[in-house]
Design goal:
two-stranded antiparallel sheet; 2 helices; about 55% strand; 12 strands; single chain; mainly beta
Length: about 170
Amino acid sequence: MALPRKLKNFNLFGDGHNFMGQCNEVVLPKLTRKMEEHRGGGMNGPVDVDLGQEKLEMEHTYGGLMREIYEQYGATRADGVMLRFAGAYQRDDTDVVDAVEVIVRGRHSEIDPGTAKAGDDTEFKVTSTLSYYKLVINNEVVIEIDLLNFIEKVGGVDRLADQRSAIGL
């Protein structure tokens, strides 16, 4: 019998700031491929043609006002803000803990300070659009996507290397 790895705890860091105790929730980037259906002559049905990576986004929610986030607003570079999620995923049948990191770079597209009402929760929500994504499990890079540099590594294989070569990059 095996039990799944469950997130037991996490922390978020932003441009060197430790957000311990301040970050309530992170919606990690969804990995989605842009697909187009194709059915040509002699085919008995359609297949999806992979046209590359869809837009990457990450949402993060804090317990209250975050000056550090406001100071990052309007970053002029597409990779101007770095965030690092560090999670501890544990199986309850073996007690083994997996260290999972998601490192992203991008900029904040939306800052929602929420409702200002005395005595109520003051959640502070941020949406970041990303140009870089890296998933690391137990110090091993599993996926690295660098949209600005046309790099997409999965399981150590750069799936865009041949395309870069073909277009002279």
